[in-house]
Specification:
The structure holds two protein chains of two kinds. Helices cover 17% and strands 28% of the residues of chain A. Chain A has two helices and eleven strands. In chain A, the strands form two sheets. In chain A, strands 1-2-3-4-5-6-7-8-9 form a nine-stranded mixed barrel. Chain A has a two-stranded antiparallel ribbon with strand order 10-11. By secondary structure, chain B is an alpha+beta fold. Helices cover 23% and strands 34% of the residues of chain B. A five-stranded mixed beta barrel of chain B has the order 1-2-3-5-4. The chains are: A alpha+beta, B alpha+beta.
């Protein structure tokens, strides 16, 4: 009898412990569901339905504050790419080779995204290229030199009141947001917060002591898209190739 | 009045192109296609490939203006864009008769970017915002 009681007490304590562990994990803060880029765009890109309450549209992403030699190169590349595109000879791009956008571009990806809040983790899925980011909550930050290079990098996060602060390191050097070079010392900090029930704001700051003269900051926004189901996007039928002589994109006609 | 309308027809696809330039870069550019030329082709579907980065349609079709019959490769948008503007993976099959309004490649090869497709029953579908609107009937 006494043994049985002890066992029961032990089991009850274990169950209580497990439940306490689960409950002590961060609670859902309202990010769950599908989101489209804001301002909204219809005609295939999003719902095209404006929010109930008008929210000011964020300013465009500014020019990267690259250090002088890199900034000159970047401006020259942008000018050359624009000129080639105007002539109908678009320069080669990673997207043409079915490569995912990676961080931070995937946070304003081509298509809608889904956010899933589960205990200890926030998962962000961008429809284009089936891109996935896992933000590990309350996990120790990873030192850039210890982070295996990845397209989405390695993200850790914490709730600061109602703001989810996410730090990302370990983005592959080949991932070039807006043709901007970066080193493995690049660090991206995002501050995500709900402006209201429909609009999510993401204040992004990129820092890279090797390439940037100062932090590069901008804001992206998303509108909730209730009921939208993220689709599959596997880039398995690429018909574009790089013209070997002129280094521009060409379509394989037949 | 007529002049003003013509200007608007040219300006609208241009504005759309500028607006969505960042999205186009995500996959690949539509710059190899004529930016301001649209033609109408009518004929038979020989292949319909539902996939990404883009959906492709092959046609044995006649150019409404020149009367030339050629085998065309027609580039459509991504599967999810097309789903969101009303297409389905099984919308077309070989043997279907369709009429398309497209912008051909600038280099003269028989490939084109879809602007609008009209099925045999008269149903019209766009190719989403990134591809631009049809400016001819």
């Amino acid at each position: 009898m006494g043994l049985r009681l002890t066992l029961a007490t032990l089991l009850a304590t274990a169950a209580l412990g497990a439940s306490v562990l689960t409950q002590s994990a961060p609670v859902v803060r309202g990010l769950n569901g599908s989101w489209e880029n804001y301002p909204v765009r219809g005609d295939g890109f999003g719902s095209g339905v404006p929010p109930k309450v008008a929210v000011a549209v964020p300013a465009p992403v500014p020019e990267p504050p690259l250090k002088p030699p890199f900034l000159d190169e970047w401006r020259a590349t942008q000018a050359r790419n624009a000129e080639l595109t105007k002539k109908g000879l678009p320069p080669v791009s990673t997207g043409m080779a079915c490569m995912p956008e990676g961080m931070p571009a995937m946070m304003q990806g081509t298509f809608p995204m889904e956010i899933l809040e589960t205990p200890g983790q926030v998962t962000i899925i961008q429809e284009a290229y089936n891109q996935v980011r896992r933000v590990h909550l309350d996990a120790p930050a990873i030192a850039p030199q210890d982070a295996e290079p990845r397209f989405a990098g390695h993200s850790t996060g914490r709730w600061d009141g109602n703001t989810l602060v996410v730090e990302t390191v370990g983005v592959k050097e080949s991932v070039r947001f807006r043709n901007t070079p970066h080193s493995m010392r690049m660090r991206i900090v995002e501050r995500l917060r709900l402006v209201n029930d429909e609009i999510l704001e993401n204040q992004i700051t990129v820092d890279d002591p090797e390439y940037l003269a100062k932090p590069w900051s901008w804001t992206w926004m998303y509108k909730r898209w209730p009921g939208y189901r993220i689709e599959e996007y596997v880039c398995d039928d690429n018909r574009y190739f790089e013209d070997p002589a002129l280094r521009y994109q060409r379509l394989r006609v037949n | 009045m007529r002049f003003r309308r013509a200007t608007r027809l040219v300006a609208t696809p241009f504005a759309i192109g500028v607006l969505f330039v960042s999205s186009l870069q995500a996959h690949h550019s539509f710059a190899p296609y004529e930016p301001n030329v649209q033609i109408k082709l009518s004929g038979m579907v020989t292949n319909f490939k539902w996939g990404n980065p883009h959906v492709y349609l092959e046609l044995d079709a006649v150019d409404a203006k020149s009367g030339d019959k050629r085998h065309w490769l027609v580039e459509c948008a991504s599967t999810s864009i097309l789903n969101r503007v009303g297409w389905r993976f099984n919308l077309l099959k070989p043997g279907d008769q369709v009429t398309v309004i497209v912008s051909p490649l600038r280099n003269g090869e028989p490939a084109a970017l879809l602007k609008q497709i009209v099925l045999a029953d008269g149903t019209k579908y766009s190719n989403g915002a990134a591809a631009g609107r049809s400016t001819i009937e």
